[in-house]
Amino acid sequence: YTPTGAVLDRQLTRVCPAPATVDPNPGLACGDGAVNTIQPAYQPFKGSPQLPPQGGTTIGDVLTDHQVSWAWYSGGWSNADGDVGAAGWTNGTAPGVCADPNSAPNPVWPYCPNKVFQFHHQPFNYYSNYAPGTPGRSHLRDEQEFVQAVNSSSSQCNLDSVSFVKPIGLENEHPGYTSESRGSDHLVQLLQSIQGSA
User: Fold this and answer.
1) Do 58 and 127 meet the contact criterion of CB atoms below 8 Å apart?
2) Helix (H, G, I), strand (E, B) or coil at 16
């Protein structure tokens, strides 16, 4: 990495020490940051560049350390993560075939993401504590699991104490490919289902 040069009387960024978690000059911006749509280190991801696995503490780590049950529910997660047969999986059972017509073009089975799944909107997927095969990975779930938990909560609440819900692209109000009303309608539907549960 080469520093960007001077801004007024000093550099804007600097060379980061190795490892980057050891910072002898905490008041300066480090030159190895990530901005915008850089891809996560783990599946599901879409191409490159990919951010190296991160090791910082997340809110999920804090919740886990305090024994608070929690989950990150993402619309389209099971399809994108290749969780064949899990809640939210819509690609059939034939190996090698992503049967859902809304799958992204040219997927590699079993990774059959919806064409509007936002890979870079999955914050925990950037962290090593949530890599495939780790205990933390169990906190990353499909939004349909949230819906099932709400629907099964008629006499007793089956939700985690903390539930983060990230809708699929068509229901997240993002300008350019969806609408505010579609996202708001989805949010109202989620809230009404929670209010109607135990």
Assistant:
1) yes
2) coil
The pair of three-digit structure tokens given for residue 8, joined into one six-digit string: 């007024």
Closest CA to 144 of 88, 84, 76, 86: 88
87 near 142, Cβ under 8 Å? yes
Q: Tell me the per-residue pLDDT of 84-138, one tens digit each, with 9 for 90 and over.
A: 999 999 999 899 999 999 999 999 999 999 999 999 999 999 999 999 999 999 9
Neighbours of 169 (CB within 10 A): 20
Q: Name the β-bridge partners of 39.
A: 50
In this structure, what token pair is assigned to residue 183?
């996202």
Distance of CA 150 to the CA centre of its chain: 21
Task: Determine phi and psi for 90, rounding to 5 degrees.
Answer: -125, 25
pTM equals 0.82
For residues 120 and 40, the answer to whether their CB atoms sit within 8 Å is yes
Query: Helix, strand or coil for residue 70?
Result: strand
Nearest to 118 by CA among 177, 163, 160: 177
Q: Which helix (H) or strand (E) holds 13?
A: strand 13-14
Query: What are the DSSP calls for 107-147, one per residue?
Result: -BTTB--BTT--GGG-GGGGBGGGSTTSGGGGGEEEHHHHH
Q: Residue 190 — φ and ψ, nearest 5°?
A: -60, -45
CA distance 35 to 123: 13
DSSP 170: G
* Residue ranges per structural domain of the chain: 51-195
